[in-house]
Amino acid sequence: MHEYRISWRNPLVRWSISMLVALTVLCLLVGFLWLPSVHKDFTAQGLWASICRAAGVPSAWQVGGAAAPLPPQATQVALDRSMVRSAGSDSVGRGATLALNCTMCHGAQGMSTSNAPNLAGQYPEVVIKQLRDYKAGKRASPIMVAISKSLSERDIDDLAAYYTSLPKARTAPTTYDESLPALVRVGAPLRNIAPCISCHGGVDQKLGAPWIEGMPKVYLVEQLRAFRSGGRRSDIEGQMRAVARTLTDAEIDEVSTFYAGKAAVAGR
Ligand code: HEC
Ligand code: HEC
């Protein structure tokens, strides 16, 4: 009977171990030197990504991976009472000059005749927050992201001071009354939806909630749909996303018609 022992003296063992080492070296050379040199993609994302790809696991676990453009994200703006402080008259004057670049879409007096939002009488902290969000790419809009890029912090503050100084008297504020749509007046308690007037004025105005009376209907519908789908997601603590999440198309249409229609009611 033969005794099989693994011994370096055994030529078969010597041969197989040498072959194993040689194969390993060959594989490393092919994988890390030859393939990357003929196929640029192999090293494009770095060694770690190559290893992960070979093993079949994603190198970055977020959706889209590192290379995909980031979707709009949560805002970085912290609302601050100082944003509300009335600015000096030089601020308003400077803002008025800067606003000449905005009239084409937002109207000569901040009342839009297209489907862009009105800015006349808008709360200063809203204009500041939204412009900062666009500038940081937190709120998506190719037009506004491009425009806000060239605005300095001072420009943004002055624009806000100017717009808030314009009369919003052409749109009537909402006051509580039984004829208001239910969503506006009492919300939908079973779906955890607070009434619009508890934040947008009427009963209370939460810091950062925009003046929406008299806004173009198309704009209101678009924004509510964007909150619903998460396309607009820079609202602090998801306040509007929580409201819009379960709204139906018909409900969005109803509240938008209501708020857009407030313009006609204003007599002053
Ligand atoms: C070419 C048209 C255009 C111009 C010019 C323009 N805007 Fe806008 N703006 C828009 C549109 C459209 C929106 C809505 C975008 C969206 O869906 O987020 C908007 C949104 C805004 C908002 C958000 C309002 C809200 O209620 O949330 C602010 C603030 C604003 N613009 C300020 C400005 C200022 C200040 C300027 C000038 C420096 C300016 N815009 C120039 C088209 C324009
Ligand atoms: C809990 C408070 C709260 C409630 C309730 C609420 N909102 Fe808002 N809403 C906000 C805030 C805050 C924003 C500003 C979000 C941001 O920073 O982008 C906003 C933004 C909006 C905008 C975008 C306006 C613009 O100019 O950009 C619309 C439209 C809107 N709300 C409609 C409604 C409607 C309609 C209801 C009722 C069905 C409602 N909201 C209920 C807090 C609220």
Descriptive keywords:
elongated, 268 residues, Cytochrome Bc1 Complex, Chain D, domain 2, mainly alpha, binds heme C
Task: Summarize the model shown.
The chain is an all-alpha fold. 48% of the residues lie in helices and 0% in strands.
Task: Report on the architecture of this protein.
The chain is mainly α. Helix content is 48%, strand content 0%. The protein has 12 helices and no strands. It has helices spanning 11-38, 41-44, 46-55, 89-98, 103-106, 124-135, 142-149, 153-165, 182-185, 217-229, 239-244, 249-265. Helix 6 runs antiparallel to helix 8 and helix 10 packs antiparallel against helix 12. The chain starts with 10 loop residues before the first helix and ends with a helix. One heme C (HEC) is lined by residues 117, 129, 183, 194, 196, 198-200, 206, 208-210, 212, 220, 223-224, 234-236, 239-240, 243, 255.
Lay out the secondary structure:
Elements: H1 11-38, H2 41-44, H3 46-55, H4 89-98, H5 103-106, H6 124-135, H7 142-149, H8 153-165, H9 182-185, H10 217-229, H11 239-244, H12 249-265
The protein binds heme C (2 copies).
CATH topology of the largest domain: Cytochrome Bc1 Complex, Chain D, domain 2
The backbone outline, from C-alpha atoms, is elongated
In percent terms, what proportion of residues is strand? under 5%
Q: What is the tally of beta strands?
A: 0
Individual helix count: 12
Question: What is the residue-mean pLDDT, rounded to a whole number?
Answer: 86
Tally the structural domains: 3
Task: Give the H and E element order.
Answer: HHHHHHHHHHHH
Helix and strand content put the structural class at mainly alpha
How much helical structure, as a percent, in the residues?
A: 40-55%
The N- and C-terminal alpha carbons lie at a distance of: 114 Å
Which value, in Å, is the CA radius of gyration? Answer: 30 Å
Q: Which residues sit in consecutive blocks of at least 5 with pLDDT less than 50?
A: 62-67
CATH superfamily of the largest domain: Cytochrome c-like domain
Cofactors and ligands: heme C
